[in-house]
Amino acid sequence: MTTRPPREMLEIRRELMAFADIGIYRYTMDGTVLHMDRTTLRILELDDRFADPAQVVGKNIADLFEYELPPGALRKQVQETEEVRSYEYSFRTLDGTSKCCLHDSRMVHDHESNQDTIQVITRDITALKHVQDQLTETNQDLAQANAELQSLDELKNNLLANVSHELRSPLVSVRGYADLIMSGLSGPVNVEQKRQLQIIVTNVGRLTAIVDELLDAAQLDRSGSVLQASPCDINGLVEAALLTVTPKSSQRSIELEPDLTGDLPRILADPRLLSQVLVNLLTNAIKFSEPGGHVIASTSVTPDGGVCIAVADNGIGIPAKDLERIFDRFYQVDSSSTRHYTGLGLGLTLSRDIVHRHGGTLTVESTVSESTTFRVVLPPAPSKALEPE
Ligand code: ADP
Questions:
Q1: 1 is a domain residue
Q2: Which residues are within 8 A (CB) of 144 and not within 5 positions of it... i.e. 6 or more apart?
Q3: Residue 387 pLDDT grade (very low, low, confident, very high; cuts 50, 70, 90)
Q4: With a 6 A CB cut-off, is 318 part of the ligand 1 pocket?
Q5: Cα–Cα distance measured from residue 316 to residue 314, given in angstroms and rounded to the nearest whole number
Q6: 78, 101, 124: which is the final residue of a domain?
Q7: What domain range includes position 84?
């Protein structure tokens, strides 16, 4: 036999439950109320009809509400499993108010009347439900706004890709004819005309580079995360990238220095895309350095067996406040109309995107007027990927 808790304990328990706004009531298997506390009376909005909970005792719960409480299904479930927790129940009080309660119900044998009864602990969650409904609605609105943004983004990418593509062909044609005239094959060209043609060719080259960058951005956005990855010799890719930017560095009297670690592990990468990253980092290092500057491209093995490629320069540097933002689309530290650095502000966005697609990271460290170092860290290739087929 269970011993009853002392009277003051019961009192404390009652006070605590009222404080926590938790009601308790008990009824027989046929629905006759055996006990109901004041909190339940209030939660179920019965307090304007019954001043005292004792007045409810003996009534059938089916007569107290528009719907039976808790419903027959729950009663059956409690009978079968002896205990049902967190049962959410919406009902309407007799004055038509919609309410939602959370019940924890369990079978309790009443020794006095020698019958099974159901004891219910109930909490009013109407306000909570309301907030939840509002949140669900807001979530749905957000999901819809997100879908609209995504389709707008797609539209923008398609536009970008199509416009860039359409611009490319006439540019190739202008360049071809300018070269032809300059070569003198279509007739004699004097020195001044040659100088002017050279200006056309240089600017067509610039325009082509911009269009190519836009095309690359649109293509990467479209192609999702599809990589043409194969085991790569990273030092070879760095050397090739250094060779590509050598004319630019010579033009600006900037010294390029490789510092490559021998015996690098082969890394699973898309060589075309990774080269694009390296050329972009090196081009920036040259572009943002003063003549006489020094650019070092180094490689090393990371502690987990991956590879780190660092491109360091002793150029103008990047202010701390801009360090993360430079990876944002179209962000440039100097975006004024008077800036003397060319570019679109897309290269680092693309580079970080490409490196992330390889499962790697692209980070930067910089001190203004001193130095900037970009680091590409690529994870080790799974050993299976390096096995010969
Ligand atoms: P872009 O070079 O076309 O402007 P990027 O996305 O490659 O675009 O670079 C964004 C910006 O980050 C640059 O405009 C420049 O302000 C800054 N930046 C990038 N690399 C360097 C660097 N090595 N030194 C100083 N600033 C740099």
A1: no
A2: none
A3: low
A4: yes
A5: 7
A6: 124
A7: 6-124
